[in-house]
Write a structure and sequence with these properties.
The chain is α/β, with parallel strands linked by helices. The chain contains eight helices and ten strands. A four-stranded antiparallel sheet has the order 1-4-5-6. Strands 8-7-9-10 form a four-stranded parallel sheet, sandwiched between helices. Strand 9 (about 145), helix 6 (about 150-170) and strand 10 (about 175) form a beta-alpha-beta unit. The N and C termini lie far apart (about 50 Å).
């Protein structure tokens, strides 16, 4: 079965309720359609291990998802081969183009959305920013707040973002959000809760 067929079949079977409890451990509400994929499920002819699949929709069309394998605690992209940039939650973020908060993973993105109660948050799904992602971000949003992982790859992504801005979009603003005590937004949420995450992000944005 294709990933799309697997997703909707398991969704009909109530596997989103299993994902609810898993995501709750990470401080998240399953408001984004994630499902639990049982061990041994075959996707595109390949047997996968148990994990949680968070769907990616672009223009309201299912384009795949981000799969977090439970055993290895790693994220894998399962995205259709599309010709335009993948920016998770871009459809919702377009409702207000004055600014956007840029994150690395879906869970970081959802952590900020659910803590601040805003939709101006997108995920690049990786720290390796693609040129088409950068073009889309700067063409759409007036100001970009970068909240990537607090590690070398995250800082490298911020440097690439600012370098691209300086060369092609010097009139746009880029600022770094860096919270101490956690590697990323979801870890911060898990440790300190939604209220403190929201308070610290707003403090740095002011």
């Amino acid at each position: 079965m294709s990933l799309k067929d697997v997703y909707y079949k398991l969704l009909d079977n109530g596997n989103d309720e299993i994902a609810d409890s898993i995501l709750k451990e990470r401080g998240l509400e399953n408001t984004f359609g994630a499902i639990y994929i049982p061990d041994g499920t075959r996707v595109n002819g390949i047997e996968v291990n148990a994990g949680v699949l968070s769907p990616v929709f672009i223009n309201d069309i299912f384009r795949g998802g981000i799969y977090r394998e439970m055993a290895r605690k790693q994220f894998y992209k399962m995205i259709d081969n599309v010709k335009y940039p993948i920016l998770y939650n871009i459809d919702n973020a377009l409702k207000d183009t004055s600014f956007v908060i840029l994150t690395e993973s879906i869970y970081d993105c959802q952590s900020i959305i659910q803590s601040l109660g805003i939709n101006n948050v997108v995920s690049t799904l990786t720290a390796s920013l693609k040129t088409d992602q950068l073009i889309s971000l700067f063409a759409i949003f007036s100001k970009i707040y970068c909240y990537f992982d607090n590690d070398n790859s995250g800082i490298g992504a911020y440097d690439k973002l600012t370098s691209f801005r300086d060369e092609y979009y010097p009139d746009k603003e880029v600022e770094l959000i860096l919270l101490k005590g956690a590697k990323d937004a979801n870890e911060y949420l898990t440790k300190y809760g939604k209220d403190k995450l929201a308070k610290e992000i707003v403090r740095q944005m002011l």
